[in-house]
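Hey team,

Filing this mostly as a record. A colleague (T.K.) asked me to run one chain through the structure pipeline before their review meeting, and I want the input and output archived in the tracker in case anyone asks later how it was produced. No errors, nothing strange. Just documentation.

Input sequence:
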Amino acid sequence: MASGPTASGSAASGSVASGSAAPEAVASSPGASGPAAPSSAAPAPAPRTTTLAQRKRELVATELTETALQLFAHRGFEAVTVDEIATAVGVSKRTFFRYFASKDDVVVQFLAGMGADMRAELAARPAGEPPSAALLHAVSVPLAACGDHAERTLPVVRLILRTPALLARFLEHEAGWREELAGELAARLGLDPADSLYPRLAAGMALAAFDTVLRRWSEDADAAGDAGDADPLVLIVRAFAQLAPALDAV
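Output structure:
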């Protein structure tokens, strides 16, 4: 979610994320010293190129997303029409609907990017890492992006939390994230999610902390009159300090 964060999967996090690492980031391990590849090995395939048409579509989608989220944040979700979004970008209403099914879909794609980032981070954590640490790193990815670009993301967070229709979609997505994180946890720990209560309970606890931090961040910023000094990463570390004993009792 002009200059807001973008939506849609990796694009959503890509436009707001910076080089900030999750809490207690672990340095990359040195590469393995295995045997060198034989000289007769086939050359690596050339990197896939993006066509001019694809780049144009990505630019239009990004501009529509950023403009829509900025309008929503400043004027309210219900007050903004698709016609106004299209006009602000300089495209037709028909063009808008080539990218989004509705104006709700702009925010929904932003949320989808958050969930994808969390699951990818959890899958990438070291196998022997305690569940509390792995889950902390997972939910910290979107929070790091939010904190690094508070002036752009905080209005969108407020918009979601204060708009009933968008909050309902947010909660729908959280339910899906819980199942995805639970499945990843079960695989990491060798548990059967059909028999063990732990994966869904642990994923639910992590997302409850994530939700609580977003709300606290928004409330603290309101009290300060702007983005304030609150750091969502600091808040999530504090939350997990209280959850860790239960998360690691598996």
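Quick notes for T.K.: The first helix runs from residue 9 to 16. The chain has a mean pLDDT of 81.
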